[in-house]
Amino acid sequence: MKELANHILKLEQELLDNSVRKDPARFGPLLDECFFEFGQSGRRFSKADCLADGTLGSVDLRISHFGLHPIGEGSVLAVYRTEDRETGKTANRSSIWKSDGICWKMIFHQGTPVPNE
In angstroms, rounded to a whole number, what is the distance separating the alpha carbons of residues 93 and 40? Predict the structure, then answer.
């Protein structure tokens, strides 16, 4: 499970890499066709929304408290916290990943702001 956790963490980090975020040919294959997200703004985004020109802005986020939980055959729930290095704001995040036997793709993501403590 540790090897899989490291792999999913690497994929999550890729999705936060600005060079990947700006390249639909690299970003798109990481998302399943049925992907959707509830962003920190409360808005719902589809894969098409994420791949639309200019939708994904630059980010400078650090991942911490990463954990992986099996939820079914070939699917896992990733949970973690991000800290925005520019603003210091934190968010709890969760993603569901599924494997088609060859590669892992994200099918759901949610970001929830953490109130200032």
Answer: 9
The domain that holds 103 is classified in CATH as: 3.10.450.50
Number of domains in the chain: 1
Question: Which structural domain, as residue segments, surrounds residue 70?
Answer: 2-113
Round to the nearest angstrom and report the end-to-end CA distance of the chain: 33
Sheet holding 90-99, edge to edge: 44-46, 31-38, 104-113, 90-99, 75-84, 61-72
- CB-based burial, 20-31: b 16+ in 10 Å, e otherwise: bbeeeeebeebb
Reported as a single tens digit per residue, the pLDDT across 10-60 is 999 999 999 999 898 999 999 999 999 998 788 899 999 988 866 678 899
Task: Measure the CA angle with vertex 67, ends 99 and 82; round to 5°.
Answer: 105
